[in-house]
Amino acid sequence: MRSIRVASVALLSTAAFALAAPIASANDGGTTPNVTSFGFTVSPTTVAPGGTVTLNATGCQEPLVKASSGIFDAVELNEGKPATATVDADAKPGAQYEVTFDCKGEKGTTTLTVAGHSTGTGTGTGTEAGTTTPSKGVKAGLGGGAGGLNGAEIAAGSALLAGALGGGVFLMRRRAGDQA
Known about the structure:
Blueprint: H1 2-26, E1 39-43, E2 46-47, E3 52-58, E4 64-69, E5 72-78, E6 83-86, E7 96-103, E8 106-114, H2 151-179
Parallel strand pairs: 2-8
Antiparallel strand pairs: 1-3, 3-6, 4-5, 4-7, 7-8
């Protein structure tokens, strides 16, 4: 009877570890493309504060698609027709904002970049002095899990799992010894 308990603990622990391993390695740090059953675009992808963008969604089975972002009021796209949105005049130059499209609860996102301000003096090179280069933005909403795991974290997790398994086997053997 005791060997059945030990074997079942070992089997359950192995199954839990095997199921957890693919989940941990599936996070690729945000490089997976934003795949949805419908298409969506923001044009242009870089806009000045106070500027206008055109929002478009195609392939949604429901006639109403909602588009929202932190730098413009929510917009409803009706029956696949494009709509426009005005970016807040106080939007931070160089910042990137997520634009979310919602089709029947399925959400897709894309990035909208706010162009840098100009000092009004050209440099003659096609770029204006005082413009800023936008950064890649913040990886938000993943709870810090976007960075992936390093070797030390994997080793620490494995050691904790092995310790828990060993402790469980020890307690089961001790309990079985007390009953005999």
